[in-house]
Please model this.
Amino acid sequence: MDERELRELVRAVVVGAMSEAPGGNATGAAVPPPAFRERGVSPEDIKLAKKAAVWMGGGIPTPPVLQLWHPAGDRSYYLGKTPARLGVGSAGLRYRTETILQFLSDHATARDAVASVVDPQVVASLGLVPLVSAAKDRTQFLRRPDLGRRLSDASREIVQKQAIRGPQVQFVAVDGLSATALSVNLPQMLPLLNKELAAAGVRMGTPFVVSLGRVVCADEIARLTGAEVLCLLVGERPGLRTAESMGAYVTYMKVRNFNEAMRNVISNIHSGGLPPAEAVPAIVQNVLRALRDKRTGVDANG
Model:
């Protein structure tokens, strides 16, 4: 392969290998064009061509698909559109001091969220009946997920004695891994959810809040009350950007062989994600559709 052929290979193959043009494929694997395949050009030749392109000072040409892209803003514009840790830079071989301090602060907030409890004033103001899971304390809850998936005997008795029987919709709030998310979002959402569903003529049950609980414990409450649809509001696992993210699970409960694919989920509900005011109509729509179609989850959305 002489210099002329090498330059031709660089031009025809390197660009093609980085795009979906005839010289490349959808997987990103380098595929020589027909003329070079006939000459027996291998993937190793293509790798050599890329190295040669850099060695000759030409660099790797921009793929055709990117040549048509004209960004609407600069780097700051795009970094401002996401809370993700992108483009944080470095100080030598280390992160910048500001980056490290922000990470430590966010990590501490996440740890605090896992250990948090729902604000008692929120529980009282919303008329929520407090329950607890079978876990004895926070440490056991974190080490034994199975205990967080079922109610304590005392809580099961409370449901049996105090709950409205046979509601169309049963609301349950569960602290999960961030009670902070419930304390922040429930006051904004639960009154609106009750108002919208009441206006639609939906019969609702007694609202409960479960401490040291996980998603599945709400199923037990729905079955004890005989609810048709369960609407669960649960604190999500805190990340390194917010401890206030909440998820909403809408599940049609009148099924024989239940599995986890039979849930509708709306996630990332918080002021920096899906705002609570926008989440409410989405949840209401899911609940009304569940009552109408008598199903939720994969089958309902398929």
Observations:
- Residues 3-67 form one domain.
